[in-house]
Amino acid sequence: MSQMSQQASLSRCPSCAEPLESGDRFCGACGYDLSAVPGRPEDHPTLTMNGAPAAPAAAPGWPSAAVPDSSDTPPGVHVPADIQGTDSGGGPLHPAPQPESPVVPAPQGPVAAGPRSPAGPVVPAPHVPEGASQVPAEAPAAPAAAAPAEGVRFDHRAEPDEYPLQAPDPRVAEPGTPGGEPTLCVACRAGRVDGDGYCENCGHAQPRERDHMEQECGPLAAVSDRGLRHHRNEDAFAVAATALPDGSPAVLAIVCDGVSSATRPDEASAAASQAASKALLAALPRGTHPQTAMHEAILAASRAVNSLADEPEPGHKHAPHQNAPACTLVGSVVTAGLLVVGWVGDSRAYWVPLDRSAPAARLTEDDSWAAQMVAAGLMNEAEAYADERAHAITGWLGADAYELEPHTASFKPDRPGVVIVCTDGLWNYAEAAEEMAAAVPLDAAVRPLHSARVLVGHALDGGGHDNVTVAVVPFPAPPQGAGSA
Q: Which of 96, 266, 312, 400 could make an SS bond with 324 (beta carbons 3.0 to 4.6 A apart)?
């Protein structure tokens, strides 16, 4: 603004406040030199938009500059999202410095909305106030994963320890509002949850039904939890009780762990656990020997997982046997005086006697790279499981399995105890049989659900890096005259 225009805009003398005439250069009352009045400084506002850093703190005595709301924009005027502001004369300003946008890894899970990639869902877009324009950012392409060696599958992808939009812990989430009213987000407590399970306000994923599951069935129980680092639960279990032809009871537990590097691992584990349980419940009452029934149940679970490869995931077009759904399986059947276990993969079963002076034992051998190194005498167990390749599994259920070799074993314990059937989300924090026995409560045989909760808590306290699933199956006192296997 020029000096003359500044003088013309004065209506009263800055010194004595007497009225001025247009064009006066001196006050007629006090003689004040009007040319000495400084001009009004130019205004250069900067709008903080699209994640730009906050404006510097205002100088003492000055009010803080507020970011204009979108409602302040005159009707019909569009403000592009990449423009930081304009000066009072309408000229463009230099844009405020923008921080380098970090690459947000997409967690593996069901897609809520928007385009998908084979690697997993698109991270929900951040909330944009109504009226502000939004320029979609082009997602960076994920690097192609190297193909594993034939007959070896890596259970875990290269992924960060934490997911940026990790779902909140379901144990502290508030239940949904009764009466059919919209459910509020457990993160911001304000936004409504859409049909895909994401908050319409903050975009936060809500706890899913499978994030934490518990079931008690007669004398046995199981608990499964998403853990603290994964964005969904890819484990599944099935527990059931039945009777043999002679009327004696039989109980069974199946635990499956979805292979994270496969497509739809959560569906694979669910299909395998249900198929194996159904096969056992059909075979045992017919008089099939429990060990034979377990073998047939693993084959049935394998067929169920294989069939998923012929059902492409919605929104995906891929070859039936490319990156097929896959999981591991471990199961146990307990009858009067007989304990049977079966497995494929690296999920485990442990024997823990009620008399803790007797030794505990691991009942399964992993189908894994580490186990092969130990069996070949190339490494001791500590060295093998410390290697980054330790959890590369050599056996799994799935259409692309190298060779299916169901393992079964039967035991005749000479004393009462409990069988701990679990995924590596638990045994990673209690690997040796003695460590597992120390983590199992002393009253596990009479309080199986409580004991399963305690064991899941043990894994969460240790870090909860993986999904955690555990079934506690009591083994009763053997009949008189029964000997050890």
A: 400
Q: How far apart are the C-alpha atoms of 71 and 165, rounded to whole Å? A: 30
pLDDT in tens, 20-34: 777 777 777 777 777
pLDDT tens digits for range 427-467: 999 999 999 999 999 999 999 999 999 999 999 999 999 99
Q: pTM for the whole thing?
A: 0.61
